[in-house]
Design a protein that fits this description.
By secondary structure, the chain is mainly alpha-helical. It has helices spanning 2-13, 16-19, 24-29, 37-44, 48-56, 73-83; strands at 63-65, 68-70. It has 2 domains: 1-30, no CATH class; 32-87, Multidrug-efflux Transporter Regulator, Chain: A, Domain 2 (Orthogonal Bundle). A hairpin with a 2-residue loop joins strand 1 (63-65) and strand 2 (68-70).
Amino acid sequence: MIHSTFQSYLKRVNDPLVASVLTLADVLAAPKKDLTVNEVAERLNVSAMTVYRLLREQQLPSYRVGRNVRITLDAVNNYILSTSPRQ
């Protein structure tokens, strides 16, 4: 219901910025993918070394796949929420 209502709204608005917004249903339907250090750095707009520091200080939980570090999207979102200023 919400998804179809929002989709019809996007069609009526005809604004490129609004049309680029993902609907909640699209986000929930997307497959979960764990992120690499570089992907997290890009999302947080920091360097990879800063992400490694966050991992070392255990501010950002992670796991290893062989020699590679992976961070869940939920962990990144929780970190963003915990560091964003409260209103």
